[in-house]
Amino acid sequence: MDAVIPGLLQPRPTPERACIVNPASSWPCDRGIQVAELQAVFWDVDGTLADTELEGHRPAFNAAFREAGLDWHWDRSLYAELLAVAGGRQRMAAYAAMRGEALGDTRLDQLRALKQKHYLTHSRSGAIALRPGVARLIAALQQAGVKQWIVTSSGAASVHALLTGVFAAEGHPFAGLISADDVAAAKPDPAPYQLALERSGVAWDGVVAIEDSEAGLLSASAAGLRCLLTPSPWEERLHTRLRNDPPAGASHPAAFEHLGEAEAPARQWSGPPCPGGVVTLEYLQSLLADGN
Ligand SMILES: [Mg+2]
To answer: Is 10 part of a structural domain of the chain?
Structure first.
């Protein structure tokens, strides 16, 4: 049965909105449209900031297999299939079963610990690149003074390793982090985004969440947030749906193949038209307008 994707397959219900108009802003209040000022962007990490599954977790699994003396190797296409199994430990157990091999709990725990060690080392080394347009948009938001928070279902250690590798000496621009260590319920539960709203002190109608998955979209939507979707490469079902049955109308969340660069515009599947295929601060602001 298809999962329901609020706001993607059907118009997003419009909750009661207390519209905040910033009198200092010349946009778009001058046009008489009541919108909240963009105050914060909440970033998902895995699949949104970077392709951490294929470029991070996959090589870490392979390094763990080598260190443990297993002759296993997960290439990109095999790993994309294995992602149907949630959780690394369960994924290794399922693959062992596919091969007709049995791994005991102790062996699985050892492999999981080795894999985590390699993932942290790999991430800190800067080997995982940001997705197209991410560095550009982060810099623009930082320059404009828009708060940026991380809202992820990953553990804090994995996130800090990635941020260290990507931003190195200059330091990362995020004002706060909500990780799996902070909430009892992971996405698609709204708890991570609700906690981010509480801790950041930002009103919900001044926030855009950027996500790559159905679970992330559900979580952000349930917290009442506007959400821009950039499906990650392994979200095949989402890609297929957007490709074959793109939702029509401006009332749906904006969905792009990535955030876009001037020299590499992103394909857009839904949401208000984005000239040039490059998601900018101004475009995120436009998503806060009533009717979007
Ligand atoms: Mg994600």
So the answer is: no
